[in-house]
Design goal:
By secondary structure, the chain is of the alpha/beta class. The chain has eleven helices and eight strands. Strand 3, helix 3 (about 80-85) and strand 4 form a beta-alpha-beta unit. The longest helix has 18 residues, at about 175-195.
Length: about 250
């Protein structure tokens, strides 16, 4: 089964109206591979602005949301609010949410369930830290993270799994194409065993961690790498090169 290539841009806490407006103009006018689904993760305060300016063929994502629809949760936003400004995606479980803000697997699972129940699609992030890789427990860590997400998913067509080795995020270190393929292959096998063969064949497993114009083509050629979640490079014109990695 062919899986549509997926490229997400995670802008993190970067940009202002001027610079993001220029980036959006670049994306709107660039010649992008029509066989790629593109979704840009905007800071919450700019979601409405970005969705109103971005070409309809490009998706927009929030970078986080909470696990309930409304209430006394200062500083949080809900899937209902995200949907209300025309945005259809959310990034959940990013390593910065896990390790900088202390979000647990359980909370990420609850957020995933609530986002999906409220009609958002989810880019669900998993990945091991350097000490975990060096201790040889990469599989144990990512399988445990994936299980909590899987336990909260009913419709897998609304979910993209993003494997992001934490040691490769923003460090300039990229997992080698072989390292990425190995984990993606094992993740797909886990999904086949623990969810179903049909979901394993259809779910997109994308790679994140210092993806650049120079590393993207070889990564994209790996059998089980179905796209990318791009950090810093998604704020530059280079993002177009990454979107067009298969051209």
């Amino acid at each position: 089964m062919s899986r549509k290539f997926f490229v997400g841009g995670n802008w993190k806490m970067n940009g202002d109206k001027k610079s993001l407006g220029e980036l959006i103009q670049t994306l709107n006018t660039a010649k992008l591979d029509a066989n790629v689904e593109v979704v840009c993760g905007s800071p919450a305060i700019y979601l409405d602005f970005v969705r109103s300016k971005m070409d309809a063929k490009l998706g927009v994502a929030a970078q986080n949301c909470y696990k309930v629809a409304k209430g006394a949760f200062t500083g949080e936003i809900s899937p209902a609010m995200i949907k209300d400004v025309g945005v259809n995606w959310v990034i959940l479980g990013h390593s910065e949410r896990r390790h900088v803000f202390g979000e647990s697997d359980e909370l990420i699972g609850q957020k995933t369930a609530h986002a999906l129940e409220n009609g958002l699609s989810v880019i669900a992030c998993i990945g091991e830290k350097l000490d975990e890789r060096e201790a040889g427990i990469t599989e144990k860590v990512v399988f445990a993270q994936t299980k909590v997400i899987a336990d909260n998913v009913k419709d897998w067509s609304k979910v993209v799994l993003a494997y992001e080795p934490v040691w490769a995020i923003g460090t300039g270190k990229t997992a080698s194409p072989a390292q990425a393929q190995e984990v993606h292959d094992k993740l797909r096998a886990w999904v086949k065993t623990n969810v179903s063969e049909a979901v394993a064949n259809s779910v997109r497993i994308i790679y994140g961690g210092s993806v650049t114009g120079s590393t993207c083509k070889e990564l994209a050629s790996q059998k089980d790498v179905d796209g990318f979640l791009v950090g810093g490079a998604s704020l530059k014109a280079e993002f177009v090169e990454i979107i067009n990695a298969n051209v």
